[in-house]
Backbone:
């Protein structure tokens, strides 16, 4: 494939799939949506499937979230995905909830389920989304969620070395730079962005992270109305190390209606979707080689 900058991409690029769903408090239904996506990703020839934050459930309250949480070792949601991964020999990157280490809270985590169905990696979201925006979202993630306390070192996958972050972590450049320095080639941001903040910041932040770390960015997102109080923006995307959007799925407005359809439009995200893109590590090396981003750590501290 010839890029518009004239570079011949290598033939052995790996294919990544992103999945977009609308999770609710119905865990069995969410699992079946995700399993549909595993099937679709396998049919599309993907070597890994990336699913959104909180794919297991989106609750209506902190109390409901606490009542729904299960340990990954006994969770039917995780076990269902493990068996799908095994069945299709397809690794799955998925955001879920797990019991917190301490106290009556949950952990917002990311699991890497290998092609043999094993939970091989885990990252716990560092930054929690506590906001109160006039005429915008009011959310207090820390009411029910315990923040993580470490970065997960980048890990090898069939599509490249993955540096995992989650949703609101996207607003902080430091962890992405730290993961890049530790060898990440792909930064992941499984998300459930709100519509107003998504419209304002989602794409520019994702592209900035790709450009400043010269890495692929894989951002699978929730899309549509989860319940009376929550709607997610959608626009899952895969971005290359030059900042180009290689694949993108659709989004919804504040009412959960598919964008651009006007009043009386269609309810969004009724069907789980995937998109795929080639991850070409030869191209990544070329971008990094042609424009070295050498830090002036004699002037400012290294992250
Ligand atoms: O609630 C769950 O179960 C899953 N977690 C989420 O949806 C989280 C916390 S409320 N959402 C975000 O971090 C959105 C960030 C965002 O929208 C922004 O940074 O603008």
Residues:
């Amino acid at each position: 494939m010839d890029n518009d900058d004239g570079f011949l991409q290598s033939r052995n690029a790996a294919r990544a799939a992103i999945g977009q769903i609308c999770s609710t408090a119905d865990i069995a239904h969410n699992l079946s949506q995700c399993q549909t996506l595993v099937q679709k990703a396998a049919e599309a020839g993907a070597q890994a499937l990336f699913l959104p934050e909180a794919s297991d459930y989106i609750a209506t309250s902190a109390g409901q979230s606490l009542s729904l949480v299960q340990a990954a070792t006994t969770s039917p949601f995780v076990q269902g995905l493990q068996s799908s991964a095994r069945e299709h020999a397809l690794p799955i990157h998925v955001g879920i909830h797990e019991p917190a280490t301490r106290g009556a809270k949950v952990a917002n985590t990311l699991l890497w389920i290998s092609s043999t169905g094993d939970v091989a990696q885990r990252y716990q979201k560092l930054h929690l989304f506590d906001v109160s925006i006039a005429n915008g979202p009011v959310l207090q993630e820390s009411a029910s969620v315990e923040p993580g306390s470490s970065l997960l070192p980048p890990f090898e996958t069939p599509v490249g070395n993955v540096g995992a972050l989650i949703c609101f972590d996207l607003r902080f450049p430091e962890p992405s730079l730290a993961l890049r320095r530790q060898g990440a080639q792909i930064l992941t941001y499984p998300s459930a962005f709100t519509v107003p903040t998504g419209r304002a910041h989602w794409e520019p932040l994702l592209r900035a992270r790709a450009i400043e770390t010269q890495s692929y960015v894989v951002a699978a997102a929730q899309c549509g109305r989860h319940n009376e109080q929550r709607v997610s923006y959608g626009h899952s995307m895969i971005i290359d190390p030059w900042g180009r959007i290689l694949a993108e799925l659709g989004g919804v407005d504040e009412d959960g209606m598919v964008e651009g359809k006007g009043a009386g439009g269609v309810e969004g995200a009724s069907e789980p979707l995937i998109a795929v893109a080639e991850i070409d590590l030869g191209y990544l090396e070329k971008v990094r080689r042609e424009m070295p981003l050498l830090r002036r750590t004699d002037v400012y501290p290294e992250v």
Notes: Residues 1-9 have pLDDT under 50 and may be disordered.
